[in-house]
Design a protein that fits this description.
UDP-N-acetylmuramoyl-L-alanine:D-glutamate ligase; globular; alpha/beta; three-stranded antiparallel β-sheet
Length: 275
C-alpha cells in the first residue's frame, strides 16, 4: 500500500453532547465518518435531551475544553475544526484561545434547539461574534441564528443578502445562510464569499422538522474541507450529502424524524421482529 493510500483526513467537532445521537457531537461524528474522514470530538457541553426536547444542560469547565483540544493537537494532523453548541462566553473564549490559526474552521452558530430551548446564552452569542466568527473559514447559520447574531430582520432575498454580508463584515471568509426557515425562497441557501454570492437550491421535504440537520450539514462541510475540497466545493458536496440524510431520515416515532448520515449504506434501518 502506498503512502498516498494510507493518508487519512482528520477533523474535530467541538460541540455539545446529544444522548439521542441525532444532533451535536454524535451526529457530527457519524457524518464525518460517512464522508470518509476520521472524526474526533471535544465536549463543550452536556445535554439531557432526546430528538423532541431538551431537559437540561450541564456546562463543561472551559479549561477542560482547552485540554481536550490540546490533547488532539498534540497527536493528530487535524485538517479542519467545526464548532457547534458552545454554551457561554467563557467556553467560546477558551475555544478561541486553544484553536490554531492555520487550520480551517467551520462555525455552526448553534443558539437555540429546534424546540426553542436556549443552547447558547446571550454572552456566548456576543463572544462568538467577537472571537470566533472573525476566524471562520465558513459560517453556516440558519435564518433565526443569522437574525439574532446580526440584529437584522430577514424577510426577503435582499435582507437575506444583507445578513450574509454582515458575517463577512465581521471577518468570516465565507457564509452559507441556509434558507430552510425562509417563507420567501424556501429551501434555497445563499453562499457568499469575497468573490460574490451564489444560490444553492435543494429539495424541500414534507417533514415538520428533522432533528440534527444543521449539525449534519456543517459537519459534512468540515469533512469535505478536511479532504481537501475548496470551500464552495465542500459546501456543494455537503448539500448532496444532507439531501440524502434528510431524504432517508429515520422516523423514530410517528411524525418525528432524525437525520440519517448513514443513508448511503442504510436507506432504511431493519425493522425488529416481534418477540
Amino acid at each position: 500500500m502506498t503512502d498516498a493510500k494510507r493518508k487519512t483526513a482528520f477533523a474535530v467537532s467541538i460541540a455539545g453532547s446529544d444522548p439521542s445521537a441525532g444532533a451535536g457531537l454524535q451526529i457530527d461524528l457519524k457524518t464525518m465518518t460517512a464522508c470518509g474522514v476520521w472524526g474526533m470530538t471535544v465536549a463543550a457541553a452536556l445535554t439531557a435531551q432526546n430528538a423532541n426536547h431538551v431537559r437540561a444542560i450541564a456546562e463543561v469547565d472551559p479549561v477542560f475544553v482547552q485540554q481536550q483540544i490540546a490533547a488532539l493537537e498534540e497527536d493528530f494532523p487535524i485538517a479542519c475544526y467545526k464548532t457547534g453548541m458552545l454554551g457561554n462566553a467563557e467556553t467560546v473564549a477558551a475555544v478561541a484561545k486553544a484553536l490554531p490559526d492555520a487550520v480551517p474552521l467551520v462555525i455552526d452558530p448553534v443558539l437555540i434547539a429546534t424546540r426553542e430551548y436556549r443552547l447558547t446564552d446571550g454572552s456566548g452569542a456576543a463572544a462568538l461574534t467577537e472571537e470566533l466568527i472573525p476566524r471562520a473559514t465558513v459560517v453556516t447559520p440558519n435564518i433565526p441564528e443569522a437574525e439574532e447574531l446580526s440584529g437584522l430582520r430577514i424577510t426577503d432575498a435582499v435582507s437575506m443578502e444583507e445578513a450574509a454580508y454582515w458575517f463577512l463584515d465581521q471577518g468570516a471568509s465565507a457564509v452559507v445562510l441556509k434558507g430552510g426557515h425562509a417563507e420567501f425562497r424556501k429551501g434555497v441557501d445563499l453562499f457568499l464569499d469575497r468573490e460574490g454570492g451564489r444560490l444553492l437550491s435543494g429539495n424541500v421535504y414534507a417533514f415538520p422538522d428533522v432533528h440534527g440537520s444543521g449539525c449534519c450539514f456543517a459537519s459534512a462541510v468540515a469533512a469535505y474541507i478536511a479532504l481537501g475540497h475548496p470551500v464552495f466545493s465542500a459546501v456543494e458536496q455537503a448539500k448532496v450529502f444532507i439531501d440524502g440524510a434528510m431524504r432517508y431520515a429515520v422516523e423514530y416515532a410517528p411524525g418525528r424524524f432524525t437525520m440519517n448520515p448513514n443513508w448511503r449504506e442504510h436507506q432504511e434501518y431493519p425493522v425488529l421482529l416481534e418477540r
